[in-house]
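Batch manifest, entry 17 of 40.
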Amino acid sequence: MSTAFSFSLTATDGAARTGVVSTPRGEIRTPAFMPVGTAATVKAMMPESVRSTGADIVLGNTYHLMLRPTAERIDRLGGLHKFMNWDKPILTDSGGFQVMSLASLRKLTEEGV
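Output type: C-alpha cells
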C-alpha cells in the first residue's frame, strides 16, 4: 500500500473541475459524494448498500467515535476500516466542534476530553 497522496485534474470547464485524489486506501473522484457515518456507521445502511451508491469515501466523527464505540474497542477489533467493513478511504474530522457545542455533556481533564 502506497503512503503517497496526490491529486490529478481530469477535466475542466471554466472554473469547474473534476479530479482524482489518490490515497493509500484508494482513489476519490471529485467532486465527491461522501456519506456520513458519524459513529462508524451510515444510519439505516449496510456497508454493501453504501458501496452500491458509488461512494469512494465515508465520513466519521472522531468525538462520537471516542464516546461510542470508543477508540479502545475499535483498536481491539482491528481498526476503523475493519470495524466499519469499509476498505476505501475514511475521512474523520477532529471532533473539536462537538467538544465545544456539546460542552454540557463532556468533561475536560489534563488528559483530554
